[in-house]
Automatic annotation (TrEMBL):
One GO MF term: transaminase activity
A Pfam entry, by short name: Aminotran_3
Gene3D superfamilies named in the record: Aspartate Aminotransferase, domain 1 (3.90.1150.10), Type I PLP-dependent aspartate aminotransferase-like (Major domain) (3.40.640.10)
Coiled coil start-end: none
Species: Gloeophyllum trabeum (strain ATCC 11539 / FP-39264 / Madison 617)
Entry keywords, A to Z: Aminotransferase, Pyridoxal phosphate, Transferase
Family of the protein in this entry: Belongs to the class-III pyridoxal-phosphate-dependent aminotransferase family.
Cofactors (names): pyridoxal 5'-phosphate
SUPFAM superfamilies from the UniProt entry: PLP-dependent transferases (SSF53383)
Name of the protein in question: Acetylornithine aminotransferase
Length: 444
């Protein structure tokens, strides 16, 4: 057996530098809300592999369903024949769709692929080429997904020109409008819809727009829920001009925000919904969900992929859907969410700390704390993470030293909380305590 430190060195030598990492240690095991590192540390995991292992690492029901499926059928090429787990998963998902019109499914492997497929479907169905995306939006790192991603230049550096026909528009996040954090949702909504109006009158004619693409809670771009009035406004614009509304629920879906899908908070109907991450608790699976009337326009063979809708991943997805109900995950999210917000409110009561925290926001267990930038501007991603102006990165690093995995978001001073949805009261409190200590140590 290779020694653990040798293993890290091996990785440093042979794994692409293009991957960023939180720690140089090697993960050897995952169990519930914890991961074991090869340097002996047991980390409390408030990242869930970026919103994936929502039911905790190696959830017994999900792992067993996958193991059973491995002994039955691993690969059932969906371009050759339907396979049972694919169809069983659709049966489980139909009743939880945010709108009954969403009745046609295509499963893929990753969120990025699903984004690509959704763009393709929208172009095909409407016969139009252009896509409106959100400033700060993140949709992936493959070529089409990269073009609609506008959260950080690093994702597309050296790759321009990107896919043409993508128009970014301001998201209702106060930073993007030069407004203070206490700006009302109505004002943010109004200003963002005004920007959209300008875009549609000055830059691209609405009759040439295939789709508007949005995360209902912008993830990488700051963990900001879109106001109901804004999403309603988008729906109205889409209906008026025959534009499709694509809702990217890759990070916010599957109870992450307390409802199955974050779009439910608005009551708005998506034309296409993209899901991934929490759908199968770690097995590679994503989905493009739309209505039959749209997908019936596609030519057979225009969608597909060797591993698309893998049988083991679909079986895991079925088990996730069952476990979410049986384990009463929605109730747990509601209780833990309240405790998390209470703990952050308590932290803000300290005058010195409070003055450094600009905003606490989110829904369910998709929650952010935004620090005041000491320079008053968004941080420069190229600045050394330990530089004094980079508060969020320094807090995350301090948490790491205290055995808590926690992530930042993109260009602002934001820490994101994405703990397992079934985390216990005790583990949540433990993580909150570590976070509070780390903030005090960094800020003071
Ligand atoms: N959309 C959103 C909202 C995401 O958060 C992500 C991943 N962080 C993606 C798309 C891309 O998914 P994947 O990494 O599985 O390709």
């Amino acid at each position: 057996m290779r020694g653990v430190s040798t293993l890290t060195q091996f990785g440093q030598k042979h794994v692409t530098k293009g991957l960023g990492r939180l720690t140089e240690a090697v993960v050897t095991k995952g169990e519930g809300s914890y991961v074991q590192l090869d340097d002996g540390r047991r980390m409390l995991d408030f990242t869930t592999g970026i919103g994936v292992t929502s039911l905790g690492h190696c959830h017994p029901k999900v792992s067993k369903a996958a193991a059973d499926q491995c002994m039955n059928l691993v690969h059932g090429q969906c371009s050759i024949a339907f396979h049972e787990p694919y169809l069983r998963l659709i049966e489980k998902l139909l009743p939880i769709m945010p709108d009954p019109s969403l009745d046609s499914f295509f499963f893929w492997n990753s969120g990025s692929e699903a984004v690509e497929g959704a763009i393709k479907m929208a172009r095909w169905y409407t016969g139009r080429q252009n896509i409106i995306t959100m400033q700060g939006g993140y949709h992936g790192r493959t070529f089409g997904a990269m073009a609609v991603t506008r959260s950080k230049t690093i994702y597309s550096e050296g790759c321009h020109p990107l896919m043409p026909g993508v128009f970014p528009v301001a998201y209702p996040y106060w930073h993007q409008h030069g407004l203070p954090p206490n700006t009302s949702e109505d004002e943010l909504s109004e200003r963002s819809l005004y920007q959209l109006d300008l875009l549609l009158s000055q830059q691209v004619n609405p009759k040439d727009v295939a789709a508007i693409l949005i995360e209902p809670v912008i993830g990488e771009g700051g963990y900001v829920p879109a106001p109901k009035s804004y999403l309603e406004g988008l729906r109205t614009v889409c209906d008026k001009h025959g534009i499709l509304l694509i809702i990217d629920e890759v990070q916010s879906g599957f109870l992450r925000t307390g409802k199955y899908f974050a779009i439910e908070y608005s009551g708005v109907r998506p034309d296409i919904m993209i899901v991934a991450k929490g759908i199968a608790n770690g097995f590679p699976l994503s989905g493009i969900i739309s209505r039959k009337e749209i997908t019936d326009k596609l030519s057979p063979g225009s969608m597909g992929g060797t591993y698309a809708g893998n049988a083991v991943a679909c079986a895991a997805g079925v088990a996730v859907a069952d476990a979410m109900k049986e384990d009463k995950i929605q109730e747990n999210v509601a209780a833990r969410s309240k405790e998390l917000f209470d703990s952050l409110a308590e932290l803000r009561k300290d005058a010195e700390i409070g003055s450094k925290i600009l905003d606490v926001r989110g829904r369910g267990l998709m929650v952010a704390v935004e620090f005041a930038s000491p320079t008053g501007t968004p941080h420069d991603p190229l600045v050394d993470p330990s530089a004094p102006q980079n508060l969020a990165k320094r807090v995350a690093k301090r948490c790491l030293e205290k055995n808590l995995f926690i992530l930042t978001t993109s260009v602002y001073e934001v820490i994101r909380f994405i703990p397992p949805l079934n985390i216990s009261k005790e583990d949540l409190a433990k993580g909150c305590k570590i976070f509070a200590e780390a903030v005090k140590e960094v800020v003071r």
